[in-house]
Write a structure and sequence with these properties.
Blueprint lengths: L1 H25 L3 H27 L5 H35 L9
Length: about 100
Amino acid sequence: MITWISALLIIIGFVFFIGGSVGMIRLPDFYSRLHAAGMLDTMGVFLSMAGLALYVVNEFSLGNLLSALKIILIVVFVFITSPTATHAIVDAGVRAGLKPWTKKN
């Protein structure tokens, strides 16, 4: 049962990755593209890594527990760096004078 749950988490994580990729292609401006990339990729990493950690812990041993802990540390690192990097890129866009997209009437 744990294998199915971890597979489901990994698949849902990849769906978020695909959503972020489609958002990068389809959205109209720099800021909304970064929003899609930052939010959806972070959630995709969280769900897919949670599925991998759950799959590794399925057979309980000290080595598997340490591997799951490393996966959790990767998620923590991504949760810290992804919003920071997105903010830095948006700040660079603002300083470069990029204007947000507005709908023409």
